[in-house]
Structures are given as C-alpha cells and as structure tokens.
Write a structure and sequence with these properties.
Radius of gyration: 46 Å
CATH topology of the largest domain: Elongation Factor Tu (Ef-tu), domain 3
Order of helices and strands: HEEEEEEEHHEEEEEHEEEEEEEEEEEEH
CATH superfamily of the largest domain: Efflux pump adaptor protein, beta barrel domain
Structural class: alpha+beta
Oligomer: single chain
Strand content: 25-35%
Length: 383
C-alpha cells in the first residue's frame, strides 16, 4: 500500500479546506455505477413489400397425353417390302411409311379390267340387237316376248359393266393400300415389323405408333370443392394453365380446354384437361408435370414472402424494419400463393419486413440487415 500522505507541512487553514474536499471527491468516485452496455443489433434478413398481380392459383399433378395416338396397321395381306422411315422420325401427314408387295393387288386389278372389257363387248352386242329388232318388233314381225329378251340382255350387260367398274375401284383401292402413309403429323415410335415379314390386314400387332406431339394435352384433377371457383373464373376469361417439369423446372403455358361433367365419388375430384401448343416439344406423352391453374384476381396485391409472416396469439404479424429498428406489425393475410403471402391490411408497398431472425426480435429492437431481397426477386415467382 502507498504511504499515507503527510499533511504536516500544510498550513492548518489549508488542511481544514482540502480534507473535506478530498473526502467528498472520494465519496463521489465510490458512488459512480458503470452504464449498462448498449443492446447489440440483431442480424436479420429482410425483403420488401411488393405490389404486383398475384393470381389465385390451384396446384395439381398432371399427365401429358397425345391428342392423337395412331397405331399404324396394314389393310391388306402381303409381304412388307420397304420401310421408308427410321425409329423416332418426325412424319408429315401423307408421308410414305411402308410399302407392301403390290403384285397380288395389281393382278386383281388387271382381272377386273379384263372382265370390264368382256362385259362392254357383250353390252355392245346386246345394244346392236336391240337397235336391229326394235323396228321389226314395231311391225309385229317378231313377238313381244322375243323383243323383251333382247332388251333384258342389254340391261343385264349394262349392269354387269357397273359391277366390273366397282370391282376395278375396289382393286385400285386395295392396290393403294400397299403404300402405307402417315395419317397425321407427329412423331413415329419404334418400328415393330421389319421389311421381309408377312403382314396381315387389321392384325393385332401394329407396324408402329405415331403420336401427335404438337399440340398436346395435359390431364389433371382438382378437388370437387374447387369446381365452382374454376367454373366461375372461366366465365370471365380463358383460364391459363402452367405445366412445370420437375427435372428442369421449365414452364409451359397453355389454356384450360375441358372440365368433366361429374365428380368422381371415389376420390372426390374432377378431371380437367389443358391444351398446350408445345411447339418446342417440351411436353412428352406419358410425362408427369406439376400444374398451376390460374383463376385470375389479385391485381395490384401486396405480397411478402411466407417466411415473413408469423402467427401470434392475436393473429398474424410481421416485423417491419424502419431506420434500423424492428417494429411489430399486425397484418391480415388473404391467401398464400407460391411461397408468397398476399396481405390485405397492415403493410404498405416498399416497406422492409424481416424474413429471417424474428425469434430474437422484440418491439423496438435494433437490427443489422445482413441480406436483403430485391423488389424484382421478391415479385417474381415461378408458375
């Protein structure tokens, strides 16, 4: 310890003055309490309240279906001579696909044409006899019964010619079936019968299958309780449907084309169908896709990320950041769409709300913004 101060050399008057002052100073020093440390700022992530069109949306899972799926089969018996396409080729309507040996059909056609020539000769003979004997019959040189025989022979020959003409038309049709052409535009599947094999008319096994890829359908189902909302929205404007691929997250836009006329009692769902142009062939028959059906509404709606809205004893609330201070604000949420909550009351466009770090906040707490979502990112939502 330091030695006590020696005050003997101080005059008595100074000692009387200085000692009380020193005692007061020491007492004051002992009575000072350290100030509490400042409350540290809470690190938070914020996002802006944005105003944009956020339509009401119904989610479902859909299956892609070709509008037309054609099983190509032969209409005649014969040997398959040629295949003019490869597996998976795009084909156009009328394009030659297969060629069947035409010689049997050509022989049948020639036979029918020969029969026509024979019957035409018989007709000409019958016509000549009628022309020859009609004046004689008028003068009663031959009996009416004999004249009737000549007339009947002519009519029979004329009917035979019509039969021959029909046989020729059928033979030509059969000959045309030896060239198998694409009935629609589409994409061919795997060729199931190779050249050299015998094919039968209307066989169970097809030569190949052609699917129409563009346009294309997507079938999906929604809860029966949502049917009235969909029908009401459809009366106002055509409904837009988005098909999202899980693998690529790419979106294709189409239109609602069909609503089934009954609710399936087994699943309490209603089947719907959407049509897509599919010019980029992003949708493929049999593919599963996520469906987002837009019902309209939500024009100029205020929205925030779902993470910003918390549930409290008095309802939903958010923390609004203003000049580095967090303020608790009660809000009214109309609905949630694609990860964003539509707020009908309690917020204004452009305000910043906390999306991460709310658990450490109280009213009036200082905050430190460590990350923020831009308005463009906040308003953009995947279909």
């Amino acid at each position: 310890m330091p030695d006590r101060m020696d005050l003997s050399h101080f005059p008595t008057r100074l000692r009387r003055t200085w000692l009380p002052m020193a005692a007061l100073a020491a007492l004051a020093a002992c009575s000072q309490v350290p100030a509490p440390p400042a409350t540290p700022a809470v690190p938070v992530t914020v996002a802006q309240v944005v105003q944009a069109d956020v339509p009401e949306r119904i989610r479902a899972v859909g299956t892609v279906e070709a509008i037309n799926a054609i099983a190509v089969k032969s209409l005649v018996d014969g040997q398959l001579l040629e295949s003019d396409i490869r597996d998976g080729d795009n084909v156009r309507k009328g394009q030659l696909l297969f060629r069947i040996d035409p010689r049997p059909a050509q022989a049948t056609l020639a036979q029918a044409q020969a029969a026509l020539a024979r019957d035409e000769a018989a007709r000409d003979l019958a016509q000549a006899q009628v022309n020859r004997y009609r004046p004689i019959a008028a003068q009663h040189y031959i009996s009416a019964d004999q004249m009737q025989q000549y007339t009947t022979a002519l009519e029979s020959a004329q009917a035979g010619i019509k039969v021959d003409q029909a046989s020729i038309a059928a033979a030509k049709l059969t000959l045309g079936y030896t060239d198998i052409r694409a009935p629609i535009d589409g994409r061919a599947g795997r060729i199931l019968v190779q050249p050299g094999n015998l094919v039968k008319a209307n066989d169970v096994n097809a030569l190949l299958t052609i699917n129409q890829i563009a346009p294309i359908y997507v079938n999906f189902a929604i809860p029966g309780a949502d049917v009235d909302r969909v029908r009401a929205a459809q009366t106002k404007a055509p409904l837009v449907v988005h098909a999202i691929d899980d693998a690529t997250h790419g979106s294709t836009t189409g239109n609602l084309a069909f609503i089934d006329n009954a609710v399936d009692p087994a699943t309490n769902t209603v089947k719907l169908r959407a049509s897509f142009a599919n010019t980029d062939e992003r949708l493929w028959p049999g593919q599963f896709v996520d469906i987002a059906l837009d019902l309209g509404g939500g024009a100029n709606a205020l929205s925030v990320p779902d993470a910003a809205v918390k549930a409290g004893p008095n309802g939903s609330f958010v923390f609004v950041v203003d000049h580095g201070i967090a303020h608790l604000r009660a809000v009214t949420v109309a609905r949630s769409v694609d990860g964003r909550s539509l707020v009908s009351a309690g917020l204004h466009a452009g305000e910043s709300v906390v999306t991460d770090g709310q658990s450490r906040l109280i009213e009036g707490a200082p905050v430190k913004i460590v990350a923020a979502t831009s308005p463009a990112e906040a308003s953009g939502s995947a279909p």
